[in-house]
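A protein record pairs a chain with a discrete description of its three-dimensional fold. The following entry can be read in just this way:
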Amino acid sequence: MDSDELEKEKGITILAKNTAVTYSGAHADGKNITINVIDTPGHADFGGEVERGLSMVDGVVLLVDASEGPLPQTRFVLRKALLAKLPVILVVNKTDRPDSRIDEVVAETHDLLLGLASDLVDDAPDIDVDALLELPVIYASGRAGAASTVQPADGSLPDNDNLEPLFEAIVNHIPAPSYDDAHPLQAQVTNLDASPFLGRIALVRVFHGTLTKGSTVARVALDGSVSTVRISELLKTEALERVPAASATAGDIVAVAGIDDIMIGETLADPDDVRPCSAITVDDPAISMTIGTNTSPLAGVVKGHKLTARLVKERLDRELVGNVSIRVLDIDRPDAWEVQGRGELALAILVENMRREGFELTVGKPQVVTQDVDGQRHEPFEALTIDTPEEFVGAITQLLAAKKGQMDSMANHGTGWVRMEFRVPARGLIGFRSEFLTLTRGQGIANAISAGLKPWAGPITSRNSGSIVADRAGVVTANAMMSLQERMSFFVSPGDAVYEGMVVGENSRSEDMDVNITKEKKLNNIRSSTAEELERLTPPRQLSLEESLDFAAQDECVEVTPEIVRIRKVDLDQTVRARSAARLKRQEQ
């Protein structure tokens, strides 16, 4: 169901999506049963999508890999599901993987469920622990289209050639929508879409009553105000397509059109008996970054790009309409705004989407959102889970110790891989991904979810290397790079345009270095004795948007254009930067 271009590139779910399956098999008792399926992101950064998805469903199918077992994303979504008191069906997928360990994965999932239940005693004291232990377990291979209630041997297919056992578990264990025939219409907007023909489309879950095409209903806005609107179009989902429908009853998830400024969380109700739905709650933001117009000397070089503050603000306001998990705050600047979200990845996805839409932006280094609790400064922490080959355990532990991380547990499954769990300040994980992949030679897997607020952990050193900064505008020359490449690595190639204050590479030492990257070779009429020697330039590192945000230091920002991503100093003038550094050094003394 992942149809977005970025979702396909990154291999993750970013936006929640829904479809409907009509089941009329052996366990349908001769009826056509409509099963609404909602695919939610597993990543904690997209918690707003998860909250919306869980507000529409009556049960959860927990899909776990037969080799990897439950991951941090599993814990995040499962915690939300248990808080909502939703029944759970466990599906162990990919049982035919050569490295599958089915018994251990089922045991780990049960331990996770019991651990979450004990953690949620205060928030949800009436959780049925016995039901969690007796949850139905289905063993499946999605690629083979097979499912069974009988556990197969590790690395083998289920003893069945269809998905009937899965449908049986859904029909028997997921309750049908509960509603009251005497209750008036009540439906909640859980998502938004747009159509060039219908305008704004609202995805709604009908809880009570009947919603019909052409009817007039009451709209309850987020501020509590009530107005009457007309449903001009009503669409149901079949497979991945939306088809027109005359009406929708309790339990249906449908799309409606005709309400131009409707927002997520609003209620459609009976005009004669208005009963609003409860609001959709979302976790507080943990990470913020400043997004503004492109202020570099190379801004607007390519025609057709979106450059003005008005266009940037309009785009951020549009993002607020469909993304309930971010906030946009004014910072008393006409050309920049502070954008807060659940995590660095969610904000990077927003910037990447704007880049692909033709915007030129200046993006600040991600920062954590702190809070004062009882007069003490608190910051968000993350529960970090790492899977890595065992030879990298020492290096990873040392790296996370420098990030103020504390190890909670470590388990060796005997396969050459080790799973470690840490509690780390969220700011310690900014820029962590690139260092982690370098340490593990690209083999390590790291996932993190929110672990709440804890007291400020103290200063954390970022990267140990410095930046190579261009000291003048011009064009990069091979001659200048040749004389510098032994001491540093570059982000630019010969022929690239640079300007004063632009970061062109990484220094092997901790301090920044200003260099003349545009120096040309002086020509004369004397033949060189080394003319026949061939020297080769080391290929430059091509940083992606996320890698650039990770690499940027506190006094740096990222210039984002549709063609290229550059890192630059906030203060481009070398003299101004030197004064600021001297002032900061005096303050530290």
